[in-house]
Design brief:
The longest helix is centred in the last third of the chain and has 18 residues, at 366-383. With 468 residues, this protein is an alpha/beta fold. Helices cover 38% and strands 10% of the residues. The chain is globular. The protein contains 19 helices and eight strands. Helix 2 packs parallel to helix 6 (116-130), helix 2 crosses helix 10 and helix 5 packs across helix 6 (116-130). It has helices at residues 36-41, 46-52, 56-66, 78-82, 107-114, 116-130, 144-159, 190-197, 227-231, 233-239, 241-245, 279-284, 322-327, 346-360, 366-383, 389-402, 432-446, 448-452, 463-467, and strands spanning 93-98, 134-139, 175-180, 222-226, 255-262, 268-273, 298-302, 336-341. It binds flavin mononucleotide and iron/sulfur cluster. Flavin mononucleotide is lined by residues 70-74, 76, 78, 81, 97, 99-102, 186, 188-190, 224-226, 229, 430-432.
Length: 468
Amino acid sequence: MTSNPGGTWPHAPGYYTGDRPKIVTSRFEYEDSYTLQRYEATDGYKGLRAALSKPAADVHEEVKNATVLGRGGAGFPAGNKWGLTPQGVWPRYLVVNGDESEPGTYKDRLLMERDPHQLIEGCLIACYAAGLSRCFLYIRGEMALAQERVAAALNEAYAAGYVGKNILGSKFSVDIVLHWGAGAYVVGEETALIESLEGNRGMPRLKPPYFPAAIGLYGQPTIVNNVETLANLPWLARNGAAAYTAIGTATSPGTRMVAVSGHVKRPGVYEIINGLTTFRDLLYGEEFCQGIRNDNELKAFVPGGGSAPWFTEDQLDVAFEGPQAGAAGSMLGSGAVMVMDSTTDIPRAALTLTRFYAHESCGKCTPCREGGTWLERILSRVVDGKGTDADLDQLLEVGQSICPGEFPHASNAKLGISAVPFPYRMNTICFVGPSAYAPVHSALTLFRSEFEARVTKRNLIPVTAVSQ
Ligand SMILES: Cc1cc2nc3c(=O)[nH]c(=O)nc-3n(C[C@H](O)[C@H](O)[C@H](O)COP(=O)(O)O)c2cc1C
Ligand code: SF4
């Protein structure tokens, strides 16, 4: 079955289902998927009931056994993260990262708009399992429909006794607090998000010592989880870890949502099987993107959000599996794939991404604040046809001041060098600085001739001529 209810949703691109297992998007095809009525009619809050019937430690163990990988970018297993909070320190909090703003990423927004109760149920299960007494749900400033839907669902859930004191007659009580961001990309970084929640400017904190599980919101142990990560929990609580790990691979079980944009015939969000689906399946498969627009050639694609080093057709057979993508020189990141066909102006595409990161730098550290701006200015000059070949070397030099050493990239394999997987070395507090360099590095490494065709050769004046 293939359906496309996305056409009726003005704020969301098409969502397409196939016969694949659906863990987090099973309700997307209903027009009223965001209501409590629909949620309860489709197994809603059964996971919470199942969890509350067991000791919290057993539910935590189940999540650990399922290896639910974090879907916010780093892919850290949720069950393990919950175990990192120090013993005996109370209160401790859950912070839900709904700030989604990595270029190309729009899966969490769909989860919040179309199935807000699933997220709320996931938060409740996480709080119960990890002993968290209050949940703060942070939603990106621009996501008006998501804010509206989550707020309405939360009111319904409170009224029905799913949230608040003595949930479903148990001894478990938890409140969920909603918070709207103001639309800064860097606030998606967990410590910046915590700063923002506390009412400060959203700037990342230093790690160590500010690992949120140890010192987080208001100085208390805090678990920060992504929307999609938490949305997996109701299904997992209903069906168990064995059913979850039966989908996907041992290292990447379950499914994951992937948002595809750019030059494909059918862009949209797909729930794919983790670890098994390849980029070729996704871009060319009949149930997914159905090929490149106008049957053009594929030139390059960004495999994991704007921060990720680019892939070309040589990496089409890499599967959605973190270590595989890392070994090939990039990362799966936020689950956003951006596709560029043969007509793409590569230097301009790199500039578009670099400009975003340079603009979003919070300014806390110099290599990002200054380096990002330099990259953008030099690249603009090159794109406008006003650059020289010295500019191309300078782009790489500035990049080195942000991330010294070898930078990961796909063409390493071709050169016989083993790729440098993430995380790479960086001179910055967070990944925004390296993200400004990633598109420049990929574009220059993979398509240098396109830059060379844009610049003029330096006209060096011989030293002797100067001294005369
Ligand atoms: C610059 C930057 C932006 C980020 N943006 C997001 C985001 O929008 N959403 C998100 O869940 N994680 C984002 N992250 C990752 C978070 O810091 C954090 O790792 C994640 O929310 C943890 O959730 P998970 O373990 O469930 O993946 C970002 C990280 C960085 C460095
Ligand atoms: S890398 Fe950039 S965004 Fe991150 S803390 Fe430093 S200046 Fe701020």
